[in-house]
Amino acid sequence: MNVFFEQFPVVFQALNVGFLQTLKLFGITLLGALPLGLVISFGSMSKFKPLSAVVRTLVWIIRGTPLMLQLLIIFYFPGLVFGKQLWGGGEGGRFFASAIAFIINYACYFSEIYRGGIQGVPHGQQEAGLVLGLSRSQIFFKVTLLQMIKRIVPPMSNEIITLVKDTSLARIIALQEVIWAGQAFMKGSQGISGAIWPLFFTGVYYLAFSGILTLLFGWIEKKLSYFKA
Amino acid sequence: MAILEVKNICKSFGRNHVLRGIDFTLEQGEVLSIIGSSGSGKTTLLRCLNSLEFADEGQIVVSGETIFDAAVNKRPSEAQLRQKRLHFGLVFQNFNLFPQYSVLDNVTLAPRLLKKDSREAIEKYALELIDSVGLKDKVNSYPCELSGGQQQRVAIARALAMKPNILCFDEPTSALDPELTGEVLKVIRSLADRNMTMIIVTHEMAFAHDVSDKIIFMDGGVIAEQGAPDILDHPKSERLQAFLTSF
Ligand SMILES: Nc1ncnc2c1ncn2[C@@H]1O[C@H](COP(=O)(O)OP(=O)(O)OP(=O)(O)O)[C@@H](O)[C@H]1O
Ligand SMILES: [Mg+2]
What's the first-to-final CA gap in chain A, in angstroms? Predict the structure, then answer.
């Protein structure tokens, strides 16, 4: 027990640094994938058939292969082909490659959620707006948007909570996120070695963070529960 | 002058000729009921009147103003279209209320967005309308809290709030449980009493007989028979006879 209390401050400090990297990857992914997903969903719904076919194929490939594989390909492929590291070495380069892989992957998942939300609003809503003389943009902003959001929030919250845990996949290209930080104490770091509890302890970070997100999304869903769409 | 003249409206979807030359006129304050079997083009005709669909041939004239002419190739701008739509109101079979808005907001949304009047005046008129359809105590309810009959009455108030010249109904009671149709028909009847010009697509023969000034029987995309409500008692054409015995 004494050992634990001796180790704790050092480990806590290191895990916090790792978790900050986890949070950064999470935040950047959302920032990129939320808007990119919307663009992709418009592409997949395009009336211009070649475009929607290409976009849907891309989405199928990304959703049909493991994110871990995509990470490895995006990180190593440019080096193999061009003979030099495109991403730059070191932690910055690994973060950049991870962010690209995560943004593309999650944008594809988000695009399907957006598509479901947009196509799920009955066409009658649009027509009801039209016969009342509303313009297309008034109909979008005042009639259909909130109904789309209501449809999007539950699947989106699932996906975002999955993202919290998926960030750990970046460990495969040695991004120094929280699991990497915990594992370091097994091999030996800052005078601590052979300690496995720091790795287990990283679970607390994930639990706390996904707990907060669950509460947040629960609150949003509750706010939108006053109507049925 | 007739408030509405529909001239030779034709409409096809691909090779399916749904409307094959529809002609009729309607005077201010008249109630027209359109009857006919499923697929005879009744909904399509209402959608053409409301510019949700565009006829391939024919003209639509409202109070002397040609609001649609298939011979004019130029597509109207969106703003022009919206202007034309305002001559008509449309009450849908499945209500299509806006679920996220209260009864009052459903009724006031369009007049507010189109700045028809001051906010107070719009609200005052909306409350009168909601009262007139018997839903005074539901002003702040949401559509999901209402029965189908109540929702349809809100939809009628919502359409009236834009003060249309002609109000169209597409089978307004078809989605309702039988015990709820009466309350909606009562509201439509009260509008007829107040000389609202209306076009009602309906399968309620007794109601059509009672409330209408004129009946049109559509079959295969044409008007097979039209006239005063007593054509329902003494149908001339075989097709109308056959249709009426199916009830
Ligand atoms: N948007 C569309 N695209 C293709 N075909 C259509 C479209 N709308 C209607 N139709 C076809 O037009 C025909 C007439 O349909 P419409 O809805 O006008 O009939 P209706 O008289 O209203 O029938 P009901 O009593 O069942 O409502 C049908 O054969 C229908 O399949
Ligand atoms: Mg119909």
Answer: 55
